[in-house]
Structures are given as C-alpha cells and as structure tokens.
Amino acid sequence: MMKALVIEKTDGKPGQVYYPLKQVDLPKPSIRPGEVLVKILAAALNHREVFIRQHLYPGINFETPLGADGVGIVVETSSPDLEHQWKGKKVILTPGRGWESSEDGPEGKYAIVGGTVGVSHGTLQEYVALPASELEEAPGHLSIPEAAAIPLAGLTAWRATFTKGKLRAGDNVLITGIGGGVALFALQFAVAAGATVFVTSGSEEKIARAKELGAADGVNYKKEDWSKQLKGLLPKNRP
Length: 239
Ligand SMILES: NC(=O)c1ccc[n+]([C@@H]2O[C@H](COP(=O)([O-])OP(=O)(O)OC[C@H]3O[C@@H](n4cnc5c(N)ncnc54)[C@H](OP(=O)(O)O)[C@@H]3O)[C@@H](O)[C@H]2O)c1
Known about the structure:
Blueprint: E1 2-7, E2 21-26, E3 35-44, H1 47-53, E4 69-77, H2 80-86, E5 90-93, E6 96-97, E7 111-112, E8 127-131, E9 135-137, H3 144-148, H4 151-164, E10 172-175, H5 181-192, E11 196-201, H6 204-212, E12 217-220, H7 226-233
Parallel strand pairs: 10-11, 11-12
Antiparallel strand pairs: 1-2, 3-4, 3-8, 4-5, 5-9, 6-7
The chain binds NADP nicotinamide-adenine-dinucleotide phosphate.
NADP nicotinamide-adenine-dinucleotide phosphate binds at residues 46-48, 152-153, 156, 176-183, 200-203, 206, 221.
C-alpha cells in the first residue's frame, strides 16, 4: 500500500465549500507495458489545488490523488530497454495528458494530472505508474524541490510567452499579477529572451522583487491611475 492525499466530499455549493484534505492508503500501482513506476520525491502546489478544494475546477474527482507537478526516481520498469534508459534516474513528470505531438495545443482529449476525472493519479501520492513517454530527466543543476515546481506553471508560462505570445528580443511585454507562479516564470523567460518587461502587482515589495529579477519597471494595480502610470513608463520611441 502507499499513502496519498485526496479531498473529502462535504456539503456546499461551488465557491462556498473548501473540501478538507484526507490522507488515504491506496494499493501501490502496478505497471503495464510501456510504463515505469516512479517514487515521488517532491511535489509542488498550484492555485489549481485551491480551485479544486473550492469546487471551482472542471471535472474534480474525490478518489484521485491531488497534484499536477512532481519529481521522482524511477524504481521499476516494464522492459529491458526502459530499464536501461530510465531505472534509477531522477525525472520530472509531465503534468498534462493527451497532448504529445503539437506544440500549438492538445490534439485529443486533454487532461491535467491530479484530482480530476481525466487521469487516475496525481503527484501527491508515494508512487505513480505512468507511460515512460510522460517523463523528462530532471535537470542536474536544479534541486529536487526546484525541479518539482517547474512543470505546470513553467509550461503554461512558456506557451503564453512564446507559443502564443510569439515574444522576441526587443519586445515590450506586460506581465500582470507578478506575484503569481505563472507570472514569475513568464518574467524570467521574457527577460532571458531579451524583452523589456513591465509588471503589475498589488504589492510594492513584489514589484521591487520583479525588478531584481530583471523587470524594467512596474505599477500597482490597486492604484486607480495604474494604466496611466504604466503608459508613462513605456519607451517613447516604441513602434
Ligand atoms: N499554475 C499553473 O500552472 C496554471 C496553469 C494553467 C492556468 N493557470 C491560470 O493562470 C492564472 C494564474 O495562476 P497561478 O498559479 O500563477 O496563480 P497564483 O500563483 O495564485 O497567482 C495569482 C496572482 O494574480 C494576481 N492578481 C490577483 N488579483 C489581481 C488583479 N485584480 N489584477 C491583476 N493581477 C491580480 C496576484 O498578483 P500579485 O500577488 O502580484 O498582486 C496573484 O499573485 C490562474 O487563472 C490559473 O488558473 C495556471
């Protein structure tokens, strides 16, 4: 058996409930052909878990362990080839399912791992069985908790910044709510790509921290004239 975290059903309408967390014992998963067994070493949280507990997320499921992000070590494989490639490696688990071939977006029925009906596991469980194609080797320069924090927010920010936003060096970009997990990844990606980044936040400290991370400047969205202030910060010679 293994330990896992799920939400417990209580009475209440979506947005008004906050389902408690419950630790449960589940059978340790067994692997099928093409799969590997990963022992989870660290899992990260996203705002998604809060939305799930408030019943504000689509397709929530009280039986499926929570958690979309995780890092683990491959402890069992289903073939000699997979054993050679993966056994003993530290890996990042991809947070989505049904999206393999196109960078532009899901090509089939798409689901995010953890707490929902689309996938039978989450990362808030001790062991996960999953197809080897859903693994990436964890970068050696990151600690295990650092690597665990990357998959969902990092991928979301990457797609927003480059796949959808088509950001290029020299662009001026606005990232709203810079205290957010996705926003912080987008900031670091955009700065690394050579863009000039402006931010908004409800907190002066978070704007100051964003500037330490490379933002050009920022405004507080709680101020009534924030959009005017922002316009005043933009370079005058922009196209
Ligand atoms: N996490 C993911 O991987 C993921 C994946 C897909 C979609 N999303 C979606 O992306 C959004 C952000 O997710 P997250 O995980 O980054 O959430 P988060 O870490 O909770 O960040 C939310 C941020 O939104 C900002 N905010 C709140 N009120 C605002 C307002 N009135 N105007 C501007 N900004 C405001 C706040 O910024 P300040 O603290 O700076 O004030 C807050 O820190 C959510 O809608 C989420 O559903 C997230």
